[in-house]
Amino acid sequence: MAHIDPKQMEETRTARFKNLDPLEMAFVDSLLPGGRKQNLKVIGRGVVENPNMRVPITEDHGFTVSWIRLPPGGGAHLHSHLTPEVFIPFDGPIRVFWGDNGQHSTVLEPKDTISVPVGVMRGFRNETDRTIVMLAMVGGESGGGSVTWHRKVLEDAARDTGLGLDEKGKLTKLSNFDEKRALTPVKA
Q: Which run of H or of E encompasses 151?
């Protein structure tokens, strides 16, 4: 039978919410209207595009877990993964949309759960006037690799925010990147 002492359990397998490091610019859509959010990774790096993301529980669990703080109007634009993705709003409603152009949607109430299949374009939005916290889980330690963004999201991000992706799928600043806009905190 395996043994783990309390100190090791706390240091390597416990993530205290109050100590999680929120990352506001985790994805290429982070500065677009409707893409603002704070990602708080818990288990596994997942599909984050910012190499500065820190994760408190690093051991491969075969899935990733993240909390996401969504300010009013915040969310994620259309994207897909090579693994399923699960969303569970914790303290308020979230609209989840899916389809090639986001043409389908449903509203999840607190603690409702949706599992979006592999390869399906999906996104989510906080349509309330207050910050909502949501739990998100993606299969696989790496979340199946890079996010596949709807082509319009990549075009809008490059044109409107100066964010792009390099050949490895990591965030890169283009010539029109506005540091002041990037440093404007998410009101979450």
A: helix 151-160
Residue burial 19-44, b: 16+ Cβ < 10 Å; e: rest: ebebbbbbbbbbbbebbbbbbbbbbb
72/19 Cα distance (integer angstroms): 23
CATH number for 15-183 (one of 3.10.290.10, 3.30.930.10, 2.60.120.10, 3.40.50.920): it is 2.60.120.10
CA torsion through residues 44, 33, 167, 148, sign = positive
Residues 6+ apart with CB under 8 A from 188: 22, 37, 38, 69, 70, 71, 74, 131
Q: What is the pTM of this model?
A: 0.89
The rounded distance, in Å, linking the Cα atoms of 101 and 87 is: 19
Closest residue by Cα to residue 143 from 44, 55, 77: 44
Q: Which residue has the tokens 């759960």?
A: 113
Question: pLDDT tens, 141-180?
Answer: 666 677 899 999 999 999 998 988 888 888 888 888 877 7
